[in-house]
Amino acid sequence: MTKDKAWWRSKAPERSYDVVIIGGGLHGMACAYYLAKDHGIKNIAILERERIGFGGSSRNTEVYRINQRAPEIIPLYQQAVDLWKGLSAELDVNIMMWQKGLIALAHNNMSIDSMRMRHETFKLMGIENELLTPEELKKMVPRLDISDTPDLPIIGGYYHPPGGSIRHDAAVWAFAKGCYHHGIDLCEGVGVTGIRIKNNSVTGVDTTKGFIASPVVLNAAGGWSATIAHMAGLDLPVVTLPMQAMVTEPVAPFLDQALASETYFCFGNQTIKGDFVIGTHMDPWQTYKFENTYHFASDLAYGWTQLFPDLAGLRVMRSWNGLCDMTPDSSPIMGKTSIEGFFIDAGWGYFGFKSSPACGKNMAGYIAEQQCPEMIKALGIERFYEGRLVPETTYPRN
Ligand SMILES: Cc1cc2nc3c(=O)[nH]c(=O)nc-3n(C[C@H](O)[C@H](O)[C@H](O)COP(=O)(O)OP(=O)(O)OC[C@H]3O[C@@H](n4cnc5c(N)ncnc54)[C@H](O)[C@@H]3O)c2cc1C
User: Fold this and answer.
1) Which fold, 102-161+239-326?
2) For 58, which DSSP code?
3) Using one digit for the tens of pLDDT, what is the confidence trace for 40-95?
4) What residues line ligand 1, using a CB cutoff of 6 Å?
């Protein structure tokens, strides 16, 4: 461990490493951190074109939960929550984890059916989750409008006690600190421009700062992961869609849980300060631009004021957007590629913040041991060619 008191410092890259990680987001940093901590592999560079945490890692709405839809992936989210719980102490950075529970609302029978189906899965897997009537929901959140006045009245929902929120910037700072103090090079302002391959094995990367040799390269570039794969001649089944979020002015705290409506498709939570960090669906167009739009603000305001009419008039303080890497089944791609030494952890869409420590731990295990950990076996890219998808979302939306 370095004696430097700084949390981290950016550094110019060396000419070769044991492992090069493309992307200084939570997935790239978590993998580097666990390679060093669990496996003693420290000769690692994290190459980040912009700055640490520039991507989705510090642009998300900070919600975590375990009760995802696909049973194959639920243990990974469970492991992530277990890891998050220890990280403030382990890295001596308060990540402001608040296990306040997550409430989701149903506004039609299809949504109720889907919640019931998922609830049975959770029961079998030992995941805490309760189905609730509108009256029970009202007891938990007295300001919720459960009357028949909204366009889509609330007809039920669930409460998932293990869910909650974690401050995204603090999570980024914590992993950057963990990496730096294990001797990992955090190289900001270094863009990867090419992947070099010889005899179907990766040999290094071309960057804006020259060639860097490495027998192992991890693509952890989030919304840009398809462009990185393309540099290696691989077509990823990933599209990049923008997603927007906003924060309101603070009001006296009244919402103690994270909350989502599956039909208005809005989600978020009230922070300890009293502001609401809220988001909605991805925009349906592919782009690499960062833009906020009027339709987003108006959709989101509509959804939240349908649930809480007295929020009408609340001012928006700030809004932002990020890029989401979406796969056809909305589950991620983790593991090896057809090129020896070229690994991938991407395609996280809506869900990559909460999962990041577990992804890092499993990818580190895979890279170090050269054996795919059980936890991520179902998530390899080959599933798209073998026809065994891991469906994470229900279509049409419910
Ligand atoms: C508005 C919004 C709300 C969200 N809400 C949630 C939520 O509540 N819960 C949840 O679990 N998830 C949420 N997500 C998703 C989550 O943020 C992402 O899945 C996650 O942050 C992805 O992390 P990452 O480390 O894979 O990628 P990123 O954090 O995007 O990191 C990738 C990095 O790669 C870098 N890069 C790109 N190209 C190159 C290159 N050529 N060379 C070098 N570096 C490069 C980028 O600059 C970037 O910093 C949300 C996303 C958005 C946009």
Assistant:
1) D-Amino Acid Oxidase; Chain A, domain 2 (3.30.9)
2) G
3) 999 999 999 999 999 999 999 999 999 999 999 999 999 999 999 999 999 999 99
4) 22-28, 47-50, 54-57, 59-63, 191-192, 220-224, 228, 243-245, 279, 322, 324, 348, 350-354
Nearest to 246, CA basis, from 307, 197, 314, 184: 314
Cα–Cα distance for residue pair 71/66, rounded to 1 Å: 11
Given a contact cutoff of 8 angstroms between Cβ atoms, the answer to whether 240 and 323 are in contact is yes
Q: How far is the CA of 123 from the centre of ligand 1 (A)?
A: 31
The pLDDT of residue 396 is 40
Q: What's the CA gap between 133 and 263, in Å, rounded? A: 17
- The secondary element (H helix, E strand) that includes residue 389 is none
**For residue 120, how far is its CA from the centre of ligand 1 (angstroms)?**
31
- Quickly list H helices, 54-130: 74-91, 109-125
Q: How far apart are CA 97 and CA 84, in angstroms?
A: 8
Rounded alpha-carbon distances, angstroms, from residue 332 to 27, 179, 311, 356? 12, 24, 35, 11
Asked if 19-61+168-237+329-386 and 102-161+239-326 have one fold, the answer is: no
Dihedral sign computed on CA atoms, order 160, 161, 163, 165: positive
Tally of CB atoms within 10 A around 131? 15
DSSP state for residue 283 in the 8-state scheme: P
19-61+168-237+329-386 adopts what CATH topology?
FAD/NAD(P)-binding domain (3.50.50)
Domain spans in the chain, listed from the N-terminal domain onward:
19-61+168-237+329-386, 102-161+239-326
Peptide bond into 357 cis (omega under 30): no
* First-residue to last-residue Cα distance in the chain: 49
